[in-house]
Design brief:
11 helices; mainly alpha; 276 residues; 1% strand
């Protein structure tokens, strides 16, 4: 077992535990165990568990963004102070003073990426689990806490005639509908990239005009606004349908969360609650 596999193993087990737990619960309630919709709702359940656990992190992110906005006047003064100075000592001094400003205000320019970074191991674990479904089914193996029978069920399950283990780039399992896979994948890729884009628009719209970010903060916001949707949109062609379901629901959750915070932060609605 290589180093990366050893790191990902606990996440793969946790992802499979949550999915199997929801799947068995839904089957107990009367849904068909082999149905693609049962497995789809299990993936949705995985999203809900992970995103609910990240709510305190999200609230810390919102408050960090507010503190980042409050330091903009000081950051602008610092940039003016070192304007035109390109020597090594000046760059080092400016970087050190920037770090002191971030420390003073209790924030950093990369706070907006924290929920995404925390989610990434679970996202990669789900990708590994679903990408290995067909191989495990053919070899008579299970994956994590998924039994071989459940692996076969998942491998043979579909929604709208699109197998959950199918990808645009690597094709569909036998009996899968290629048109359905392409159509469903494109719809979800568009949905998740649009949700990512409009979420960042809401974040940027919340910044008062007199506190418009500059320097690394502005670069970070523009990167999230334009580059991340492109990255995830392009990467969507290698994601199994099941992974696209996860990322689409997760991005829609983020958009709804940001919409609530934006309305909550509107004049007269009171402050955003602090994380406990």
């Amino acid at each position: 077992m290589d180093f990366i596999e050893a790191i990902m193993l606990p996440f793969k087990w946790l992802v499979s535990v949550i999915m199997v737990g929801f799947h068995d619960g839904l089957a107990t309630l009367g849904m068909q165990a082999a149905s693609g919709w049962t497995w789809t709702l299990s993936i949705v359940g995985l999203v809900l568990v992970i995103r609910a656990a990240l709510i305190p992190v999200f609230l810390k992110q919102v408050n960090a963004q507010r503190r980042m906005g409050r330091l903009q006047p000081d950051l602008k003064k610092l940039q003016d102070k070192y304007a035109g100075k390109t020597d090594q000592l000046s760059r080092q001094a400016m970087a050190q003073e920037q770090m002191e400003l971030y420390k003073k205000h209790g924030t950093n320019p990369f706070s907006a990426c924290l929920p995404l970074l925390i989610q990434m191991p679970f996202f990669l674990a789900l990708f590994q689990v679903l990408s290995g479904i067909s191989t495990a089914a053919a070899q008579g193996q299970g994956i994590g806490t998924m039994s071989h029978e459940q692996v076969v069920q998942f491998d043979q399950s579909s929604i709208f005639d699109a197998p959950l283990s199918a990808t645009v780039l690597h094709g569909t399992p036998a009996g899968g509908n290629v048109v359905a896979v392409w159509t469903l994948s494109i719809v979800m890729i568009l949905a998740m990239t649009a949700a990512q884009f409009f979420t960042q628009k809401l974040i940027m719209a919340r910044t008062p005009s007199e506190e418009v970010p500059t320097g690394p903060v502005l670069m970070q916001q523009k990167m999230i606004l334009y580059i991340l949707p492109v990255v995830f949109g392009a990467g969507g062609i290698i994601f199994p349908i099941g992974v696209l379901i996860y990322w689409t629901i997760s991005n829609l959750w983020t958009l709804a969360q940001q919409f609530v915070v934006t309305r909550r932060a509107a004049p007269g609605n009171g402050p955003v609650p602090s994380p406990r």
